[in-house]
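User: I would dearly like some help making sense of a protein record. I have put the entry right below:
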Amino acid sequence: MEATPALDDAVVRWSGEPDGRPVIVLLHGYGADESDLFGLSTMLPDAFVYAAVRAPLGMPWPQPGYSWYPIEGLEGRSPERTTEAARRFLEWVDAALGPDAIVGLIGFSQGGAISLQAMRLAPERFAFCANLSGYVTPGELEGDAALAERRPPVFWGRGTHDTVIPEGLIVHTTDWLPAHADLAGRIYPGLGHAVSPAELDDLRVFLEKRI
């Protein structure tokens, strides 16, 4: 199994200089890149600085974009690959933001899975997380008990017509999140694997409460 490389700091997109404001890191989904979620930064509270990172793996030829972990073949949605990618992301957070920064996460799909996995690996590192059309990776991690005690705010939004994430992972996430986080969740009728204006409004309210 090829190791997951480090994140490329040179391609990170920033909404502004890290000037002491809390930082929200945006983690895109499968086949996208750092520009995919960056546009959200103009529609969300300016009390935060936004940083959009690029996943470390290229897509199988000839598909464009990047991924956090494979979803095809024998390694498809492997918990070990998800955890490895989350550790590479944590390394970037520590190097780019330093130990004292207040950091929140917004992840879409794969990026949502990595956001929650990183929070499980380092429960004290992140102030909150928004998981858009993502899921919690099955299995136990060393930080799960500490996370359940800390119970950070987590927003989880998904659509009724999202057929991308397997039903078993949705069931697991539905059971797992309330026991480990202060959960704010909403299911959007008719929405597929995407972010709707209604979900964006809810995300904005969630972030305003974190200020």
The chain has five helices and nine strands. The beta strands are 13-14, 23-27, 49-53, 57-58, 66-67, 103-108, 128-132, 153-159, 182-188. The chain has a mean pLDDT of 94.
